[in-house]
Amino acid sequence: MMTPHMARRDPQTLDQLLPRVLARLAEQSGKGQALVPVWNATVGPHISKHARPHTLEGGTLVVNVVSAEWAHTLSRQQESLREQLNARLGPDAVSALVFRLE
User: Fold this and answer.
1) DSSP string of 18-60?
2) Alpha-carbon distance 72 to 70, whole Å?
3) What is the pLDDT of residue 62?
4) Is the dihedral of CA 66, 20, 78, 27 positive or negative?
5) Assigned domain for 6 exists
6) Is the N or C terminus of the chain more exposed, i.e. has fewer CB atoms within 10 Å?
7) 3-state class of 14 per DSSP?
8) 56 found inside a domain
9) Model confidence pLDDT, tens digit, residues 37-95
10) How many domains does the chain contain in total?
11) Facing residues of 64 across strands?
């Protein structure tokens, strides 16, 4: 029996649910490392070798990069990356990306 506060929804796959759970975990803990699987799936293996999520606080995802060149390259792609991440994590999960050298 369903309680009044439980909404009935269409079933979702783990692939649909996991990114949102990881985003919530990362936001609550401030540790962006929880987003590594989502980051890797979003950016692909080449970028993920050079950039890793570090923290997520207040919607700002801080990403560690291996060089200034990678920071510059990813900064130019920031809006596209943010949109792709939010498509996986939920609307406005990431409001800004900041790239910093490791």
Assistant:
1) HHHHHHHHHHHH--GGGGHHHHHHHHHHHHHTTEEEEEEETTE
2) 5
3) 93
4) negative
5) no
6) N
7) helix
8) yes
9) 889 999 999 999 999 999 888 899 999 999 999 999 999 999 999 999 999 888 888 99
10) 1
11) 52, 100
**What pLDDT, on a 0 to 100 scale, did the predictor assign at position 15?**
60
Name 35's bridge partners.
none
Decide if 94 contacts 72 (C-beta within 8 A).
no
CA 40/CA 52 separation, integer angstroms? 8
The single residue listed with the structure tokens 């919530």 is 24
In total, the chain counts a number of residues equal to 102
Structural domain boundaries enclosing 23 = 15-101
Query: 47: which residues sit within 8 A by CB, 6+ positions away?
Result: 74
Write down the pLDDT at residue 18: 61
Pick the closest to residue 98 from 68, 80, 74 (CA basis): 74
Q: What CATH number does residue 57 fall under?
A: 3.30.300.180
